[in-house]
Design brief:
Elements: E1 7-11, E2 18-19, H1 23-36, H2 52-62, H3 69-86, E3 96-97, H4 101-109, E4 114-119, H5 124-132, E5 143-144, H6 152-167, E6 175-180, H7 183-191, E7 195-199, H8 206-211, E8 216-218, H9 226-232
Parallel strand pairs: 1-4, 1-6, 4-5, 6-7, 7-8
Antiparallel strand pairs: 2-3
Length: about 230
């Protein structure tokens, strides 16, 4: 069965596509240590669902540094340097693509009328570093990233528009589906009127994601019906 409408899929990365064994948090801590002498800048809050730039802005506030655009960019640059070093060091058992995700992405790519992209708070280069480790980065030809907008709703909107442009149709004519693991993913999807499929592979259960407004939620993408919902909206 083909999709009834042109479809844009936007996959979150951390907790949704992959688990990175804490490489991102460690790299952010190392960036703050290198630039501001504070390894603990991010210790008091959860990064779950936040964009990279929002994380840096909040941490700079916490340590009493004015979060100017230049100060944020400096931390992001240092973070990317450390991330490229940290990702290869994570043990194989701790760095993994979540069950069913490769199959789901490849199934969508094989369908006419589907555009498969990313919807992530990671900046573009960080997304590449994380996904190349599990050999899936090349599946995603577009996306909405943390460097496109600090606000998650707006970066998801950017990703949806990029997908519609790839399909050559106006965005209002598209079915847009956001796949994520946090309430922030759900809120961003709802913020642009998209469907949200939640996965319980991060810190939140499927039940918690449904209670936040996800249209569907599964333990992971090996669950019965998950692929049918993704591809056919049922």
């Amino acid at each position: 069965m083909g999709a009834m409408r042109p479809t844009v899929l936007l996959f979150d990365i951390d907790g949704t596509l992959v688990t990175t064994g804490g490489a991102g948090r460690r790299s952010m801590a190392l960036a703050f240590q290198a630039l501001h002498g504070r390894l603990d800048a991010c210790d008091s809050f959860s990064m779950s669902g936040m964009t990279d730039r929002a994380i840096v802005r909040k941490a700079l506030d916490i340590i009493g540094v004015h979060p100017s655009p230049d100060a944020i960019s400096a931390v992001i640059d240092s973070y990317l340097h450390h991330l490229a070093q940290e990702v290869p060091l994570v043990e194989e058992r701790d760095y993994r693509l979540h069950p069913g995700m490769r199959e789901a992405v490849d199934a969508a790519l094989s369908r006419p009328g589907f555009a498969v992209g990313l919807g992530t708070g990671n900046v573009r280069q960080g997304a590449r570093i994380k996904l190349e480790r599990v050999r899936i980065h090349d599946r995603f030809s577009f996306g909405g990233f943390g460097c496109d907008h600090e606000d998650r709703v707006e970066l998801i909107r950017h990703g949806a528009q990029s997908g519609a442009s790839q399909l050559g149709v106006p965005l209002p004519e598209c079915r847009v589906v956001v796949i994520g693991d946090t309430p922030k993913d759900v809120a961003a999807a709802k913020g642009i009127g998209a469907t949200c499929i939640g996965v319980g592979t991060g810190s939140f259960t499927p039940e918690a994601l449904l209670s936040c407004g996800a249209d569907y939620a599964f333990p992971d993408f090996t669950a019965r019906e998950a692929l049918a919902v993704l591809l056919d909206g049922r």
